[in-house]
Every structure is written in structure tokens, then in C-alpha cells.
Amino acid sequence: MLDLKFIVQNPDAVKAGALKKHIVCDVDRILELDVERRELVGSVDAARSAAKAAGKTIAQAPPEERAALAAKQGESKAALKAMEARQKEVQEELDRLLLLVPNVPAAEVPEGGTDEENVELRKVGEPRQFDFAPRSHSELGEAHHWIDVVRGARLAGSRNYVLLGDMSLLEHAVMRFAFDSMVARGFTPLSVPTLVRSETMVGTGYFPGGEDQAYKCDERDDLCLVGTAEVPVTALYQDEILDGADLPMKFVAQSTCYRREAGTYGKDTKGLYRVHQFQKVEQVVLDVADEARSLAHHEAILGNSEAILQALELPYRVVNVCGGDLGQPQIQKFDIETWMPSRDSYGETHSASRFHDFQARRLNLRYRDAEGKVRHVHTLNNTVAASTRMLIALLENHQNSDGTVAIPEALQSYLGGRKSIGRPIE
RNA sequence: GGAGAGGUGGCAGAGUGGCCGAAUGCGCUGCCUUGCUAAGGCAGUGAGCCUUUACGGGUUCCGAGGGUUCGAAUCCCUCCCUCUCCGCCA
């Protein structure tokens, strides 16, 4: 969330930001509530101060005078209670509204309402020209008995799948390659819970608003399945004050990711593109509150993922995500879209986000700088590799005319040195 | 799941109704002293909010939320979490 002081001092910038993101929030009501809140804090504090002083007088008064003094004290207490009740109401409404105010997007974020208005920054690699009719990953998966969506659905409903044989091995190979690459770049490997408290979902900015997209345990447990390791990793130090000397912290974690995909019926129904569960390696950076350093990290984590795609010999493009396609918490986001022949287009595979202190404020995640001042950290994250979408790209881009699939050199050592998988299809 | 214990400042750990935002120790910071691979002395050392040009002042926070009381870290209720033993189990 944004700093209340910032909102009060820059209401127009906040409103303009929300407009650019096509998000509705009531900034004026917040300003109103803040005025009332301050008045109440002033009078409540003064009343409490008086009550405290009176209490001390009573303690020191001779026993025979105490009853009278205490009775008098009881009267002013009723007024204090009323003020406190109102203060609580105001604070609660304010807190609720503050959670809905979006982060202000950077000036470099393009105007636009949907992903169609994202701006392409660069293309890397050429989409392959096939001299045969290429198969979709679904066709390849079925022909080789690598992907079983029928039994996946029987086990767990639609948008579920089973990977078999070499496809399961390939999934592990990609994940491990991605993970190892990040460790080699100095990221600290982490294994984290994928079932977290709602509070953690709020802290990272997924709630309120994203409840429909998350699987939630029943009322016995206040826990949700995460849609990404970003959640537990970013929240790792929530409610703590870190030593600024320990920053930046860079983490890489693999996790299973769960997504309800509510409201996407009929969309991307074939194959592995939109599924309820997949594996993902994610990178997260925590650093001091410094714009320049945040920007540098943003470039770096984008570059880390591009290096993975280049090693996997996959064509991709980078887009600057427009305001309307930006989430509530981001300052700016770059998506990487990888070429997918069956879609005859680039499909989103990575999302590199910069948040400034938006998540850190919600998470109460702070650090002490060199001067001893306590500040909120800046957070960033990016996909390193998401299993299913990487499998789509690998199968479809590296397929041969006989239906076998070439394995990029970077992955061969993870597959026992094999250069291809699959037998020729009849 | 059963039985028990407990949640206090960076850590350890006192504190069972007013003198407690909280002893003491450790850690950390600064100054001083001695001079030899270290020790000693003194001082300081939580966060939030309101207010103030500033110095400062006020207030809240002792797991969370309610309650009793003129007054609560201390008493009562609810919840959360941790630990120990037993049971079950990957």
C-alpha cells in the first residue's frame, strides 16, 4: 500500500495513477477520513493524558478521598470511550480503503487498457520457419504419450494434466536448469511453504481482490495455496527490521503454483497453456529504498530470465506492460513472451515486476539504514521458468518433422546427455 | 488427536494491580582509560501515531482481540502461535 502521508500530500498523482491503471479507488474519502482521524487522535490523546494524571492523583490521595475522585473519573471516561469508538471506526474504514489504493505507475508505463496495448521493447531470436506442418504440444504430447489431460481431468477436474515419461523428466530438467542458473548468479536457494496465511496474501498484494484466483482451505485453517513462490519468499521477513548491511537479498525458489483460473472458461482450453497447477522457479530481490537500485535490479532480473530463454534457444519478445494490464501493486512490469508456434504468436511466460515499498508496507518489512533510520525495503520479482509454458515452447519450437524433439544443449546434461526425445511418429 | 508448559525490547531473562516502556545480563554505538593480540570505566541504545521550524511534548504497543478497574505486562474471556511428553504418520 501507499504511505498515507504520500496520498495526503499527492492526491492528484495518486488519482492519476489509479486512472492510468483503470482501477477505481476513493482517494477523496481517504483524505476526509484522515482529517477526522487526526482530530480524533489529538483529542483522544489529550483525554487519555488527563485520565492518566487523574489516576496518579487517586493513587496518592488519602483513602477517604479516593471514592469521590474515582467517581468523578468515571464520568470523563465515558466521553473518552465514545471518542475511542469513533476513532476505531475511522481507522478501520481508512485501513480498508488504503488496501485498495493502487501503486502509482512509473511515467514509462504506457497508456492502455488491456494486454493488447502493451508496448514491445525488443524481439530476440527469429520464430522458426518450418518446412513441414508443425504439431502443437498437445498433438506431440498425445502421440508420444507424454501428456494425459483426460486422466488429469479424471483425477482433479479440467485444466489438470499428467506428465509421463520423458515429459516428466524434461519438466524436472528445465526446473533444475533454471534453478541452478540462478544459484550460479548468486541467488540464495530457498524451499518455502506453498500454503500460507491470508495475511501473507494481503501483504504481497494478492488480497483483497484476488480471492477468486486462489484456492483457500476451509474455515478450519486460515490458509491459501499460493499462485507463486513470490508470496512466501517476499514475505519471508515480514514484520522484521533487517540490517541494511545485509541488503540486497536475492532469492530463488521453486514451488508448485496453484491457480483457480476463475472466469477463464472457454479460454485456452487446449493443452498446458492455462492450467490449475504447475511448477515455477521464481526470483525475488529485496533491497534498500533507492529508486536507482530498484531500476537496476529490474533490468537485472529481466536479463536473468532472458538468459534462460536464450540458453534454451527460444525466440521471445519483451513488452512494457501498459497501465490497464498492470496489477494493483506494481510500479512497472515487463513481460517476456515466448514464441509458441501452435498459437502462431508469443505467449506470456515471464513477468518481471517492480514494487518499490508497496509490498513492504503491507508486510511491515523494514530495514535500518546506515544512519539508523528505519525504512521499508523495495521488492522485485520475476519468473525464471514456469514449467508448463516452457514445455509448450520447448516442444513446439524444437520439434523435428518426424515428431521427435531436439533438446537444447543447455538441458542435455540434465537428461543424461540425450540430444532428443521421442521416437519418430508413424 | 490427548496431557502439560509458555508467549515481555536485537537476544537471554525479571516483573502477579499504580513508583513499568518495563530490572538485570549479553549484544550494539559513542567517549575515556590502560597499551599489547584483550580488558576496564562512563554514557547511549525499540517501533507506530499526533504535535513541533527545531529542541521537545503527548499517546499507543509486554502474541492478537475483547472485558473488569479511577488505574492492567500483571486479573477475567476468546483466539493465534511455540515448546515438551504421549498417540498417529510421510
Overview of the molecule:
A hairpin with a 4-residue loop joins strand 11 (332-340) and strand 12 (345-356). An 8-stranded mixed β-sheet has the order 1-10-11-12-15-9-8-4. Strands 7-13-14 form a 3-stranded mixed β-sheet, with no helix packed on it. It has a two-stranded antiparallel sheet with strand order 2-3. By secondary structure, it is of the alpha+beta class. The protein contains 13 helices and 17 strands. It starts with a helix and ends in a 5-residue tail after the last strand. The chain has 2 domains: 4-98, Serine-tRNA synthetase, tRNA binding domain (Helix Hairpins, Orthogonal Bundle); 115-421, 2-Layer Sandwich (BirA Bifunctional Protein, domain 2). Helix content is 41%, strand content 21%. Helix 3 (27-60) packs antiparallel against helix 4 (63-98) and helix 7 crosses helix 12. The structure holds one RNA strand of 90 nucleotides.
Number of helices: 13
Biggest β-sheet description: 8 strands, mixed
In the CATH hierarchy, the third-tier topology of the largest domain is known as BirA Bifunctional Protein, domain 2
Q: How many domain units?
A: 2
Which residues form runs of ≥5 with pLDDT under 50?
none
Per CATH, the architecture of the largest domain is 2-Layer Sandwich
Q: What structural class do the secondary elements suggest?
A: alpha+beta
Number of strands: 17
**Which superfamily, in CATH terms, is the homologous superfamily of the largest domain?**
Bira Bifunctional Protein, Domain 2
First CA to last CA: what distance?
58 Å
Mean pLDDT over all positions: 93
The level 1 CATH classification of the largest domain is Alpha Beta
Strand content: 15-25%
Rg, nearest Å: 27 Å
- Quaternary state of the chains: single chain
SSE ordering: HHHHEHEHEHEEHEHEEEHEEEHEEEHEHE
